[in-house]
Amino acid sequence: MDIVYSLPFVSPANLLLCSIVAAAALIYFPYLVVAAGRFQVGYEMGAPRGMFDKLPEFAQRATWAHENAWESFALYAPAALMAFVVGLPAEQVLGGVVTYLTARVTYSLFYILNVPILRSLSWAISISSIVSLYLSSCQAALA
Using CA atoms, how far apart are residues 34 and 32, in angstroms rounded to an integer? Predict the structure, then answer.
């Protein structure tokens, strides 16, 4: 970990801010699968949202993963910004960021592949990392 932080452009602040961008990009990761499902059944320009019932099951699950990604992002972005503002230490920042982003990637994959137990575990891990960032930030702010 010391090697990473010895690079001049890598700091806890940079990691936090870049993680928000990465989390926003992950919102659209499952949507790429939805697009594939839409083209598989014949994309309707006039009613793209009306196609949901016609989509293959994997694309329907990808739609739900996409929607959940928005909900998760709405919780993660403020947590990352709080950690940025209070200046959390590098170890806490790196752990929370990597855990969250990894859990969100696996969440979408397990949702699309229909592996409910692993999807739920990934969701719980991502939420735990968000809560950890909030609690650490509040503790640092009160210290």
Answer: 5
Mean pLDDT in each 10-residue stretch from start to end of the chain (143 residues)?
52 86 94 84 66 85 95 96 90 88 97 97 98 95 89
The encoded tokens of residue 136 equal 């650490």
Q: Both tokens of residue 76?
A: 């993660």
Q: Could you give the CA distance from residue 123 to residue 99 in angstroms, rounded to a whole number? A: 11
| Alpha-carbon distances of 68 from 63, 71, 93, rounded to whole Å | 9, 5, 23
Q: Domain 2-142 classified CATH 2.60.40.1080?
A: no
- What pTM does this model have? 0.85
Residue 80: Cβ within 10 Å count: 25
